[in-house]
Amino acid sequence: MDLTRRGFLALTAAAGAGAALGGCGSATPVASTGPVLSGAYTGPPVTIQYWNGFTGGDGPAMRQLVDDFNASQDLITVRMNVVQWAQYYQRVIAAVHAGKGPDVGAMHVEQLATQAARQTITPIEEVVTEIGLDETQYPADVWEAGMYNGSRYGIPFDVHSLGSYANNALLERAGITAQATTGDELEEQLAAMVEAGLEAPPFWMPNRWPSHLMFLSLLWQFGGEPYAEDGSAATFDSDAGVQALTWMASQVDKGFSPPNVAPDSQYTAFKNNEVAYTWDGIWQINDLQATELDWSLAPVPTIGTEPAVWANSHQLVMFKSRQPDDNKLMAGKAFVQFLTENSAAWAAAGMIPARSDARETPEFRDSPQAAVAEAIPSMRFLPTVAAVGEVQAQTLETAVGEAILGIADPAAALAEQAERATALMVGNLRKFER
Amino acid sequence: MSETGLRTATGAGAAAGDADQVKAEPRAPSTAGNNNRDGWLFMAPYLVLFGVFVILPTLFGLWISLHDYDYTLAEKPFVGLDNFTGLLSGDSPFATPFWDGMQATAIFTLGSVPLLLVLPLLVAMAMNLKFRGRNFFRAMYFAPYVLGVAVIAVLWRYLLDTNIGLVNHYLDLVGLSAVTPWLTQLPWAWISLIGVTIWWTLGFNTVIYLAALQDISPELYEAAKMDGATAMQRFTNVTLPGLRPVLLFVTSVTIIASVNMFGQAYLMTQGGPGQETRTAIYQIAETGLTSFNSGVASAMSLIFSVFLSAVSLAVFFLFRERTPNRSKQTALTNQKGGAA
């Protein structure tokens, strides 16, 4: 074909306009789960987009699962896009609203409410039965956590919590053979290690990440709740909260932690064989296994009155789309089904598979996180309140940091930030209700 | 025109002159039109970019600031000036963090700008001397500037770590305090942020100063020396006046860069201790991009830009061209002030 310059320009303009118009099937993303998937996917070959934030030691395990799925059948190709969690949620919202969102994804459970309110994820109540899942296969709390406003938005894939990591060699120098399980025991051990003259204080208290996860665990242990269930108020400044934060700040005063620990310094020091105890997520397991360190993992000790630990769950979700495509939706469901059925392999990521039968397999029983899985009944999740994570980052984390750095009194810091958090949450409620 | 035109025409008394006049008459407006058209055409590429990426977003931002705007929600109700009054009166839950951020920006600007104006000048004057290895040193001072903010911030976040950082480690080796909380307590966090920023951007101002110094004619220094001027007098009477044109540029660019500080605090202190080193830009980004409260964030940005404009105007006023006739100048500025 002989193409003049003018003709070419006109064609390009037309194509551009067509693409722009074609991009918007609907002005807002539409919820749809497509026709019922019975058995295997039988439609035309299709490629679906799968987004997640598994950038750490969990990344290779997920890539393996995706490769296994692609190899297991010929019709569906899953393309995986990995975005750091810190940017994932902003980006996925923008992508879905621009009509360029993925088909399926993984998400933290406390984001489900936010993402549902922001019109990015689809209710998937019927998908659950379609792919042969029901609540008896999951721990009750984890199963419940996938619900928001009476609808299911997420299918639990794993749970991951805070755990207590110990450097066995350093513990042994103070004659300690097992990790502490209570607050008194922990204090005795820490004092013994200071006594034994270790090079560094034994239990570093960071002023930011993951200190707010430690704070939430302790708050629940002392019988408190961080937020009202209905999202109308922040309650982390209760007596339980003050007790929790006071305990954390006191680790510095007692000399168990140096002052001014920056975020992640405590973990770096632990990896460098300097620190005896550190509380961190079980997502660090693969990272630590790559080191020479002699370490062990146990549930977080009970400092307060009842066992409790902050936990989170990766949930599988399906995204809304401005142009729902039945084939992609069916393919997405087939992929979700494959992931849940093969979730035992996810133990390789250092995570605890959510499905109870996957936790009975030998490959999980032998993993380091099996020790933490015993604490599943005491695992606590943030309530499903829209945008609570954003509020928490602006308020609770600030209060915890100020108290640990010693620049504010725990009660005063918590009270000030809880008041702000309540104001923000009331504003959010109003915003998401309309 | 007609009177002068006629007079010349009659004065010349030639038919040719008349003919010229007639020819010139219709051409004049069309040339002006052509000039205008060409001018707009030449400016068009820039104007399109300026319009699409500056004017339109500014107007859109203004519109957003009048709404309770969250782009993920269908309804974005009009709230009038509520976003502004909430911030200005302190009733909004966003007000305290915003004004704290403005204060943090002011602290950083006041701490960094004077140093970023004076230190590079000293360095530039040293680099302007003739000595061996001069080019090596010039490159050394400029080198950090080519690194991105993420690189320098992550680098220094670990170097300055209180407990595991190299800086405190070496301070310990030479017998000084090894527990300085560089990034977690005040005033250290500010000292670190300002210090790192100076280390990072010093080279840029130095290069500008250096170019200006090389432009000052050596004859002026010679003449001053002949008149018996001391080194100090030569500096104040030859060097400084010679630098005045670039001083305006350096000052305003430095102020704008400092006021926009975000990356260093975001990566090195995460706004801490507490939220003390959260600058205004940091707070606006958190409000608008992380928490999706675009309406409030736009209102913050507009308030912020009013302050920034005021500062820029003050700088321009400070460096305005001073003519020898002082009274005329004052009259002119008064007139401008009245008009504004």
Fraction of residues in H or I helices of chain B? over 70%
Q: Could you state the CATH homologous superfamily of the largest domain in chain B?
A: MetI-like
CATH architecture of the largest domain in chain A: 3-Layer(aba) Sandwich
Regions with little confidence, pLDDT below 50 for 5+ residues of chain A: 15-24
**Overall shape of chain A:** globular
Per the CATH scheme, the topology name of the largest domain in chain A is: D-Maltodextrin-Binding Protein, domain 2
Cα gyration radius of chain A (Å): 24 Å
Strand-pairing-aware structural class of chain B? mainly alpha
Summed up, the helix count of chain A is 18
CATH architecture of the largest domain in chain B: Orthogonal Bundle
Q: Note the main sheet of chain A.
A: 9 strands, mixed
Describe this structure in words.
The complex is a heterodimer of chains A (434) and B (340). With 434 residues, chain A is an alpha/beta fold. Chain A contains 18 helices and eleven strands. In chain A, α2 links the parallel β1 and β2. In chain A, α9 (211-221) crosses α10 and α17 runs antiparallel to α18. With 340 residues, chain B is mainly α. Chain B folds into two domains: 14-65, no CATH class; 94-322, MetI-like (MetI-like fold, Orthogonal Bundle), CATH 1.10.3720.10. In chain B, 75% of the residues lie in helices and 0% in strands. Chain B has helices spanning 2-12, 15-65, 82-89, 95-127, 134-142, 149-159, 166-173, 188-215, 218-226, 231-259, 263-269, 280-290, 294-318, 326-339. Chain A binds chain B through residues 28, 90, 93, 97, 117-120, 204, 207-208, 258-263, 265, 268-269, 272, 274, 387, 390-391, 393-394, 398, 401-402, 405, 407-408, 420, 423-424, 427, 431-432, 434, and chain B through 68, 70-75, 77, 93, 96-97, 157, 161-164, 179, 181, 183-186, 270, 272-275, 286, 289-292.
